[in-house]
Amino acid sequence: MEHGSSKDLTASTFSLADEDHTLANSVRFTLNQDPRVTFCGYSIPHPSDARVNIRVQTTGDPAKEVLKDALQDLMIMCQHVRSTFDNAVAEFRTSKTVEDMKIK
Amino acid sequence: MPRVSALDLPDVPKGHLPPHLELQRTRVLCASDAPTHTETIQYSGAYASVGVDNSLRLDQFCRDFRVEVIRLTEDDMEFDMVGIDPSLANAFRRILIAEVPTMAIEKVLIANNTSVVQDEVLAHRLGLIPIKVDPRLFEYMSENDTPNEKNTIVFKLHVKCKIKGPRLTVKSDELKWLSNGSELPLEMESHTSDPASKQKTYTAFTCSQEIELEAHAVKGMGKTHAKWSPVSTAWYRMLPEVVLLQEVEDEMAEELVKKCPVNVFDIEDVGKGKKRATVARSRACTLCRECIRGEDWEKRVALRRVKDHFIFTIESTGALPPEVLFTEAVKILEDKCERVITELS
User: Fold this and answer.
1) N or C: which end of chain A has fewer CB within 10 A?
2) ipTM of this complex
3) B28-39+61-100+230-344: what fold?
4) B85 touches chain A (CB under 8 A)
């Protein structure tokens, strides 16, 4: 859900249901790193409701696009983390079997 | 006056930060009273006045990020993640604890319970047993669904103590899996009978007491109840860095080595009978601040943490091996992003 002014698309608040700090803090990190963003932050209106408000203000691009780009960046980062992790585990396993063979 | 090019004058921005700012950006300084510079400088324009671009460049992240596995066993693993922001590391930790699904006993149909343990206590304890099954093979069951082999696992427990027999202790291996006509692979069994440590005792009872019950296990997430959490725990710490700011020699060196409870420092012989202290195992440092306690030690030893180097430890309860758990957690974060993207479009 996006709450913002219909005339000014560069600043709006996105209210996400069923989310908490897990996604909101990660998205806030990627948003902050985007040079088009002048302000971003998130808040949790009440801890019993699983709802997060993410505020984005940009230098000119519509806030929705900037948020979508930040989420895409986050997804790319996650995919990279996953592939690096799998490679590292595979490497560890092969080096361990080599070591075990050497000891024998 | 030597001729210096205008580009080499000290106040011209060169594209990288001066060393003291780089220290503030990448290290947490742990002083004896409180840590300083604990926040990560995320804003892309933070160093705009110095001419340094702090924005996220995905190619740079992909280049600098690395993972090193230190220890990997069936039940737990320890690995290092370098080049990642604490918000992502924390997101992975939170997902590992609360949002990776597993199977756990939810409904217990008790036919007979004449033991000293009450029905509800027994049912609660049954729920907490880890079930060694791949939860990805199952679907969630909602209120209206009938239990079938796609969403439920059924266990049976029937133990009776004979009159004038010895006292019996009921352990988790008494649970027998009932395969009510399912096509599921045979390697599913309740987490049992590894004499090392995995048996859980429920109750002990004596003459002519009996427990007969059927337990249904369903898929759920740690968010709803902790019995569905796939890790006994998952945590991370930032890599500690111990730096000697001044030469520490002879008696002071001996004192320093003795002070540290985890033997971070070592003595090195420099020759001519002089001894010097060096940092040998900074990774083991627990930041207890013993080495900077006392007069003047703060000038000689600096304790720091590296802000983007995380030492992750994951201890699994057995349902899934720890490396699979981490990959599932990252997949879940990707799914969350995708869900929000589709909602926005």
Assistant:
1) C
2) 0.91
3) Gyrase A; domain 2 (3.30.1360)
4) yes
